[in-house]
Amino acid sequence: MAGGFVELSLEFARSINEPTDRQEWTDEAWVQETLHDADAFAELVRRYQGRLYRLAYRMLGNAEEAQDATQEAFLRAYRALSSFRLDASFSPWMYRIATNVCLDMLRSRRPQASLDESPLDPPATLSVEGAVAERERLRAVAEAVGRLPVGLRTVFLLRHEAELSYEEIAQTLGLPLNTVRTRLFRARNALKELLKEWL
Amino acid sequence: MRAELSCDEALRYLQLRLDRRLGAAEGVTLAAHLEACAGCRAEAAGFEGLSVLWRQREMVTPPADLAARVMAQLPERAPARRPSLLAPVLAASGGMLLLLAWFVGELAAPATMLLEGLLNTATALWSDPLALWNVAPELSGAGLAMTLEVLLAAGLGLALLAIAGLLAFPIAGRQMARAMEGAS
């Protein structure tokens, strides 16, 4: 009986604290909801699937692995939801998990490669031979991003694909703000060099 | 507002401008530098071109059934929050500290009595070593008995505190580490 009363009180507290339109709920509110009702996780999946898939696609370079990475990221997040601090922000936490999944997949793909120090593969610039077709240009951008050392690629994509702020990237990757700024600068410089014939 | 900008600073400003983090005053300074410096103008054009190229990148969309696949692979039970041990453990540690403080307070009065007794004994023995038998009752008096009693209790309290600490800190440490680490 006491348990029922507590449940009722919690339900009442939730009902007065949350906006009536569930679409307006914050991510963190949906996390809280998922702790009571597993199906509520679907809303977080709906909100983040596109962003995480695009990040994974650019990190890994192909659709199949991007899909696996996205699924794995959501699964890891779901399993870890009970340890998510409700006063924290969900977005960097979720991106951190997705980034770690991608990095794990890249490591298992090339175990000998150092994530931060791997040099750019030769040739230094991409060829523009033949017709400058739209398709080739798009492929050139994707290839150039794929040639960035992983440490630079991650920061670049979190900034330009996920559109996170410097602070959010620092939080996501556990890096000092200055390192984020430096890596972003180096990534842009490298891309500018790789794509100079397209600029 | 600074009148001049070095090329290194101009490059840093260019990065900030790309991220819309450049203030209006810095923007003016950068514009003045770019007008005067052909090298930095070329760099700026390169970065702008890169931005344009990136905005025109291939758009990718997740497979239509991705969300359904994700939901299908989840365990059925909701990921219930584990009850935190942090609060009870900290409360227990606080309680033990209060107990220790009480013991220390209790110890003060008998310790003074014991000290006085010892002082009297020393003084008596100094003047007449054979008077030991006469002052012996001072030592076995209330001060000594109470002090020993309280010392014993304080020792017991300290031992309990040490045990609580040994249990509390690893648990509290793990809880805090888990909370800070999230799911990484």
Describe the structure.
The complex is a heterodimer of chains A (199) and B (184). In chain A, 68% of the residues lie in helices and 0% in strands. Chain A is built from nine helices and no strands. In chain A, helix 4 crosses helix 5 (90-109), helix 5 (90-109) crosses helix 8 (166-173) and helix 8 (166-173) crosses helix 9. The longest helix of chain A has 20 residues, at 41-60. Chain A starts with a helix and ends in a 5-residue tail after the last helix. Chain B has 184 residues and is an all-alpha fold. Chain B is built from seven helices and no strands. In chain B, helix 1 packs parallel to helix 3. Chains A and B meet through helix 2, helix 3, helix 4, helix 5 and helix 6 of A and helix 1, helix 3, helix 4 and helix 7 of B.
Briefly characterize the structure.
By secondary structure, chain A is mainly alpha-helical.
Category from helices, strands and their pairing of chain B: mainly alpha
Principal-axis shape of chain A = elongated
> How much helicity do the residues of chain A have?
55-70%
Mean pLDDT of chain A: 84
Low-confidence stretches of chain B: none
Protein structure class of chain A = mainly alpha
Measured by DSSP, the beta-strand proportion of chain B falls in under 5%
Order of helices and strands of chain B: HHHHHHH
Treating each run of at least 4 consecutive H or I residues as one helix, how many helices of chain B?
A: 7
Order of helices and strands of chain A: HHHHHHHHH
Intertermini distance of chain A: 71 Å
Count every beta strand of chain B, where a strand is a DSSP E run of 2 or more residues.
0
Oligomerization category of the chains in this entry: heterodimer
**Total strand count of chain A, please?**
0
Mass-distribution shape of chain B: elongated
Low-confidence stretches of chain A: 112-124
- Main sheet summary of chain A: none
Number of H- or I-type helical stretches of chain A: 9
- The amount of beta strand of chain A, in percent, is under 5%
Termini gap of chain B: 44 Å
